[in-house]
Each structure stands twice: as structure tokens, then as C-alpha cells.
């Protein structure tokens, strides 16, 4: 569960961490939530696939007429960032079936006429694979950035320690 805390952004000599302990609490809560999200998904990512269709969960579309929200089942619940990647990929594709899709939980909802679903599914399958690849590449990029930040922090700490050793006090 993501915890949100309101924190005053004003900074004056009187408004320090000592006078606003809720700032430190908010920082700790956000750090904990980030760790929990990482623990849930980690840097490991298993490819997602479209594995089924549930006719019992079909609902009317807000687009009216013969349109329905057709739920396709994904092989697992995707990470939060994965759904918008797929949605954007589909929206910008050259697919002849220009319908809308939305990832909600472990489902992929397609707004379409029921008879169009098979063709849209064929368009979506390679897009899901491409989204898996893009998401995995983004994870690798983030891991490299974290590693570089950690290496830079260690180097900076050593640099400051070297400066400290060279100081002579009375």
C-alpha cells in the first residue's frame, strides 16, 4: 500500500527537521513504500501474455451501440508502469482496428464489437511481447542508474574523507 503524507515545503531557519519531525516521518514512509514496491516486483520481470477471455465479465461500452468492454486475461498482474506502455503502443500502432484498450489489474479490456476481438487479439499479441521487451530494458536502465548513483556516492564519500585527512586544525 502506498502511503502519502503532506509535507510543508517551506524552509526557514526556524522550520527545520527538528521542528517538523513529520518531514522525517514522511521521508521514512515513502522510502518504506518504495522498498515494498521493489520487493513485490523486484528487478525480476516475467513476460506477460494474453492467456484467456472471460465472457462472463463482458460489459457494455460507454461508446454505445454494439460496442462492449471485452476482458482479456493476462498471465499475471503487470507492474504499474507496464499497462500505460502497452496502451500507448497500441494507440500509436498502425492497427486497422482502432479501438481503445485499458489494462486493469491482470485484465486487458478492449472496447470493440465482439466480432472484432479475434483480429484485435492478433494485433495485441506482438505488442504485448514488444512491451515486455521495452519494460525489461527500462528495468535494466534503472538498475544501471542505481548502480552508478551508488558508485558515485561511495567515490564522493571517499573524496570527502581524503579532504578531511588533509585538513590541519590548531
Structural shape: elongated
Distance between the termini: 53 Å
- The SSE order reads HEEEHEEH
Give the biggest beta sheet.
Answer: 5 strands, antiparallel
Instruction: Name the poorly predicted regions.
Output: 1-18
| Fraction in helix | 40-55%
Number of DSSP strand runs: 5
Gyration radius (Cα, Å) is 24 Å
Compute the number of helices: 3
Strand content: 5-15%
Content-based structural category: alpha+beta
Would you tell me the overall average pLDDT?
Answer: 81
Task: Note the topology.
Blueprint: H1 21-41, E1 50-53, E2 59-60, E3 68-74, H2 82-91, E4 100-104, E5 107-112, H3 117-166
Helix pairs in contact: 2-3
Descriptive notes:
The protein is α+β, with helices and mostly antiparallel strands and 170 residues long. It has a domain at 50-140. It is 48% helix and 14% strand. The protein has helices at 21-41, 82-91, 117-166, and strands spanning 50-53, 59-60, 68-74, 100-104, 107-112. Strands 1, 2, 3, 4 and 5 form a five-stranded antiparallel sheet that branches. Helix 2 packs across helix 3 (117-166). The chain is elongated. The N and C termini lie far apart (53 Å). Mean pLDDT is 81; it is low at 1-18.
Amino acid at each position: 500500500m502506498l502511503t502519502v503524507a503532506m509535507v510543508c515545503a517551506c524552509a526557514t531557519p526556524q522550520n527545520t527537521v527538528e521542528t517538523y519531525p513529520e518531514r522525517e516521518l514522511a521521508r521514512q514512509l515513502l522510502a518504506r513504500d518504495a522498498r515494498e514496491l521493489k520487493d513485490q516486483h523486484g528487478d525480476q520481470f516475467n513476460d506477460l501474455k494474453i492467456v484467456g477471455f472471460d465472457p462472463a465479465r463482458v460489459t457494455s461500452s460507454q461508446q454505445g451501440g454494439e460496442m462492449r468492454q471485452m476482458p482479456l486475461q493476462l498471465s499475471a498482474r503487470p507492474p504499474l508502469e507496464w499497462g500505460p506502455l502497452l496502451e500507448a503502443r497500441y494507440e500509436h500502432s498502425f492497427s486497422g482496428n482502432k479501438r481503445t484498450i485499458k489494462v486493469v489489474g491482470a485484465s486487458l479490456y478492449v472496447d470493440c464489437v465482439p466480432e472484432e476481438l479475434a483480429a484485435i487479439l492478433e494485433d495485441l499479441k506482438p505488442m504485448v511481447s514488444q512491451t515486455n521487451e521495452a519494460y525489461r530494458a527500462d528495468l535494466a536502465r534503472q538498475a544501471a542508474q542505481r548502480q552508478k548513483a551508488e558508485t558515485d556516492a561511495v567515490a564522493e564519500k571517499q573524496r570527502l574523507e581524503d579532504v578531511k585527512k588533509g585538513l590541519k586544525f590548531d
